[in-house]
Structures are given as C-alpha cells and as structure tokens.
C-alpha cells in the first residue's frame, strides 16, 4: 500500500489516501511503457514532406550527348539527380507514421506511468482546486506552496475553464481530464498534480476496467 498525502491550497497536509499498487497493475511494465511512448510520438509526425523524383520532373529522357568522343564527362538525361532542375535521388514521398496499440495495452501503459509516478513520490493530491475567476497568479502561488517548480500535469475530474485559463500561461504546465489521461502526457511531465475528486474518480475507473 502507498500512503498518499492530500494537501490544501496552502500546502499543508490535511488527509491521507491509501493506494493499492495492484489497482495500477502491481508493477511498472517498462517495455510496454516504452512501446506506448513510441506510438504517441510517432502519431504526432505529419509525414507530408515530399520531393520530386526524376520521374516527376519535366524534361526529355534522351541522353544529352554520346557517351564517348566529346571530351566531356559522361552524363545521362536532363532529369538526372546530378543536374540542376533534375529529380531528387531517393525522393521523399508522403508517409503515414502512425502506429496502433490495443486498448488494453494502452490502459496498462497508462497505469504503469501512474504507478511509476507514485513510486517516485511525484504525485501530489490537493483537496480542491477551484477559482472564482481565472487568475494565473493564484495558480502559480498554489504550485509554489506545493513545491512544484518543474513541469506539471494537472489532472481534474472534468474540464474546468477557470483552471485551464489559470494554468495555460504557466510554462510546462498542462491540464487534462481523467478520461483523456494517457501514458505520454504523464511521462512528459515531472509532477502529476491531481484534485482529490479526480484521483478518486481515477481509482473508480481502474476498478471498473479491471
């Protein structure tokens, strides 16, 4: 069991939460986690870079002059990749770099990422995170009181515009809902800041999915 402290907005511990490692798979599956990260990174690649091959450029396919007897270096036609205006050798074509993983594997990778954060003491739970109106200064103050000075992923139960607008101008801080949580977002941030409701919702989702 992992004892997870719950803090208030002033950075003081107000409660604790016991988390069973078995809920998140019991162990960190590093090979699966790497496979998921490679997939998420590959899916961000656009793959639209293209260049014209010698078959795509205009020009005659006739040899410019005979092979021997002219004193010049031997050449091919105007489309060759050695001449200005010719085609590109091994030209780039449109490619699809996307990869796929089964849903169960994606869930296991997400659970491994969360468990790795828990074991590394990089999960911070706050009792509530509400703002009457968006205020970046107030959000930055909360991060300072919670000793979060590096990249942070803020996990909430449901998308909240006040929290989003309060955090979007802070460098290396991103917000996500529990339903949109994935292994790449977790691993790309040093800390995982979660509201109590969001973390309990995550535990309930894990129990229902298992």
Describe the structure.
There is one protein chain. The relative contact order is 0.17. A 6-stranded mixed sheet has the order 2-1-3-6-4-5. Helix 1 packs across helix 2 (103-119) and helix 3 (136-145) packs across helix 4. It has 2 domains: 2-38 and 100-209, Ribosomal protein L4/L1 (Ribosomal Protein L4, Chain: A, 3-Layer(aba) Sandwich); 50-93, no CATH class. It has helices at residues 30-43, 103-119, 136-145, 161-167, 183-187, 196-209, and strands spanning 2-7, 13-19, 123-126, 152-156, 173-177, 191-195. The protein is of the alpha/beta class. It is built from 6 helices and 6 strands.
Quick structural overview:
By secondary structure, the protein is an alpha/beta fold.
Q: Total number of β-strand segments?
A: 6
Average pLDDT figure = 91
**Which outline best applies?**
elongated
Number of helices: 6
CATH architecture of the largest domain: 3-Layer(aba) Sandwich
Instruction: State the domain count.
Output: 2
Low-pLDDT sequence parts: none
Q: How much β-strand is present in the residues?
A: 15-25%
Strand order of the largest sheet: 2-1-3-6-4-5
CATH level 1 class label of the largest domain: Alpha Beta
Would you tell me the structural class of the helices and strands?
A: alpha/beta
Distance, first to last CA? 18 Å
> Helical percent range?
25-40%
Order of helices and strands: EEHHEHEHEHEH
Radius of gyration: 27 Å
CATH fold node name of the largest domain? Ribosomal Protein L4, Chain: A
Please summarize the sheet with the most strands.
Answer: 6 strands, mixed
Tell me the name of the CATH homologous superfamily of the largest domain. Ribosomal protein L4/L1
